[in-house]
Amino acid sequence: MGKPVELREEIFKSTEAAVELLGYERPFRSQVELKGKITRDMIEEISRIKKEPEWMTRLRLRSLEFFYKLPMPKWVRGIESIDLEELVFYVKPDVEMVRDWDDLPPEIREYYDKLGLPDIEKKALAGLTTVFESETIYAKVKRHLEEKGVIVLPMEVAVSKYPDLVKEYFLRVFPFTEHKFAALHGALWSGGVFVYVPPGVKVREPIESFFLIGRSAEGQFEHSLIVAGEGAEITWIEGCSAPRLSRYSFHDGMVEAYAHRNAFVKIVTLQNWSRDVINFNNKRGIAEDHARVDWVEGSIGSKMTYVYPSTILKGDYSSTRNTVIQLAKGPVLKDTGSKAIHVGRMTKSKIINKSISADGGVNTYRGIIRVVKGAKYATSNVECEAMIFDSKSQAFTYPHNQVDEPTATVSHEARTGRLSEAQLFYLQSRGLEEDEAKSLIVLGFLDEIMVDLPFEYVNVLSKVIQLEFKKIGGYG
């Protein structure tokens, strides 16, 4: 019995050290900061700093035009609390991009050490990029991938080095015309990663990008583009974190994925922003014939989150599996869900949504299944399961099905349950504290989802969930 207890204590000891480190905001030196009203001059200055080709500058300016034309989205609430003119939209940190952890400034390296990134990279990843504030500061990929022609580059580097390849997909999977915040992203994007896997190449180890917001009143707008050629396979992991901030910051990122014929793309997100971050993320994939795009979305932190991983099943026999985990503990709002658009014949989508609401948290599932006419024999199944811990907390489900093809089969299941007092009592009678018992119940609730994650990330997610239920002074 001694070893498991000692191991558990060591896990909490190391993770609490990270929480303590990330629990306050530090001043970091920056080379450039742009804030105030978003103007044409500001957009052109960002493009000039990044030495972008003319086509990208034009795309940014066109996005800016739509940002001012499009209305505020009606399908979100609380977003009106954002005062855009208070934010710093572009921050170039006073550090150059490196390929070795030891070359980072000690005060920045300390963050990543405590989060365990160098160790995870060594054990589990084929490549890693990290974005601090508005720029990529670390990028490394294993040599055997480079030899196979796999491209893993900071987005701004790829724009200049592979302009024709990037231009084919950039803001085409998720156009900036979709809504106001997609247009804002298109105008201000900075940072992110471009991953291209050539036809037939199967990348067995995941590639990760990690995004860190370092200050209050910051806007982060990273853009990631994942492309798998015919018959290729890739798993990309997106990690997010931020210290506790004195005021809110705003995250408006975008992930675009494209799976060519017979390709497989899997995207895993582990989002643990602090409770001072408003998180708005735009995510969409396109799957060609016999291709598959899968999403695993783990939303643990943030004050408000709006994210809806989506797949357009463009090709015949294409498929998608979307798994979303929402934890709303305390006075926070999680508005998430999934979308599947069936266009090809014999397409399949499976959506699993699991939410946990505690201490007044509010979870909302907002999903869309669309089957266009001609998408013969498409099948879709949606499963929503909510666990509510107390009378102060809430969970809502708003599914929307639009089926224009009579041969399609679409189903939706939804279940809501309260925390079992008998289950809690049993665990406490076995010697567990209340917070330990609650975290164990949550982990059991998420068990079937955990099998889709790499082992190292199951550990990370488990620790984060346990800390959410551990009384450590209002950690967010």
Give an overview in words.
The chain has one domain. The protein has helices at residues 2-21, 40-49, 54-69, 106-115, 117-124, 143-147, 155-161, 163-167, 180-188, 421-429, 434-445, 447-450, 455-468; strands spanning 30-35, 88-93, 127-132, 135-141, 151-154, 193-197, 207-212, 219-220, 223-228, 233-241, 249-259, 264-272, 277-287, 292-299, 304-307, 310-313, 319-329, 333-336, 339-342, 348-358, 362-371, 379-388, 394-403, 409-418. The model is unreliable at 1-19 and 471-476 (pLDDT under 50). It is α/β, with parallel strands linked by helices and 476 residues long.
Largest sheet geometry: 10 strands, mixed
Question: Spatial order of the strands in the main sheet?
Answer: 4-3-7-10-12-14-17-20-22-24
Category from helices, strands and their pairing: alpha/beta
**How much of the polypeptide forms β-strand, as a percent range?**
35-45%
Q: What is the first-to-last residue Cα distance?
A: 32 Å
List the uncertain runs.
Answer: 1-19, 471-476
Mean pLDDT: 85
- Shape designation: globular
Q: Care to count the β-strands? A: 24
How many domains?
1
Radius of gyration: 22 Å
Count of runs of 4 or more consecutive helical residues: 13
Secondary structure: elements and pairs:
Elements: H1 2-21, E1 30-35, H2 40-49, H3 54-69, E2 88-93, H4 106-115, H5 117-124, E3 127-132, E4 135-141, H6 143-147, E5 151-154, H7 155-161, H8 163-167, H9 180-188, E6 193-197, E7 207-212, E8 219-220, E9 223-228, E10 233-241, E11 249-259, E12 264-272, E13 277-287, E14 292-299, E15 304-307, E16 310-313, E17 319-329, E18 333-336, E19 339-342, E20 348-358, E21 362-371, E22 379-388, E23 394-403, E24 409-418, H10 421-429, H11 434-445, H12 447-450, H13 455-468
Parallel strand pairs: 3-7, 6-9, 7-10, 8-11, 9-11, 10-12, 11-13, 12-14, 13-15, 13-16, 14-17, 15-18, 16-19, 17-20, 18-21, 19-21, 20-22, 21-23, 22-24
Antiparallel strand pairs: 1-2, 3-4, 5-6
